[in-house]
From TrEMBL:
GO biological process terms on file: protein transport
Superkingdom per UniProt: Bacteria
GO molecular function, one term: transmembrane transporter activity
Name of this chain's protein: Biopolymer transporter ExbD
Mode of membrane association: Single-pass membrane protein; Single-pass type II membrane protein
Native organism: Eiseniibacteriota bacterium
Transmembrane region(s): none
One Gene Ontology CC term in the entry: plasma membrane
Pfam families listed in its UniProt record: ExbD
InterPro entries: ExbD
């Protein structure tokens, strides 16, 4: 009995390192490929709501286009990832124009004009923006954001 055990060990040492089985690795790669193909979005960019914003249900069958997004949460007004104003401050002011938002929109419209010029797009095309407002946002705040967007040159505003 002892000789057989040594014989098996000796034959294992002679054969060298065991070969890697490619079948299981190919199965894993196929599963990863199928997952990536399934998660690939053909329609383009998907609009996701900003943190802290509870959007109402949409019944529109059309997908939203990529635009400048102004998010209004319960506490702040955000463009991209930059907070431009506080909702409590905006709500308490009598002015319709929001200065912090207007300054950010000016920079954004200049950036869009530069991109349009470089890509050869029509410079006179209207600028578009999307407002993502929380369900509990007062209409007065949304009205001020819309006014500031229109003063900043954003003619097409989506909610």
């Amino acid at each position: 009995m002892r000789l057989r055990t040594r014989g098996r060990r000796a034959s294992f040492r002679k054969s060298g390192t065991p070969k890697l089985r490619m079948t299981s690795m190919m199965d894993i790669l196929v599963v990863l490929l199928l997952f990536l193909l399934k998660s690939f979005v053909v329609e383009g960019e998907v609009m996701t709501p900003a943190a802290g914003v509870a959007l109402p249900e949409s019944t529109s069958p059309e997908l939203p286009e990529a635009t400048l997004v102004v998010s209004i949460s319960g506490e702040s007004i955000v463009v991209g990832d930059k907070t431009v104003a506080r909702v409590a401050t905006v709500e308490g002011e009598s002015e319709l124009l929001i200065p912090g938002l207007a300054a950010t929109l000016s920079l954004s419209s200049q950036h869009t004009a530069d991109i349009r010029e470089r890509t050869g797009e029509d410079l006179s095309a209207p600028l578009t923006a999307t407002i993502q407002g929380d369900k509990a946002t007062p209409f007065r705040v949304i009205e001020k954001v819309m006014y500031t967007l229109s003063q900043g040159g954003y003619e097409n505003i989506s909610l």
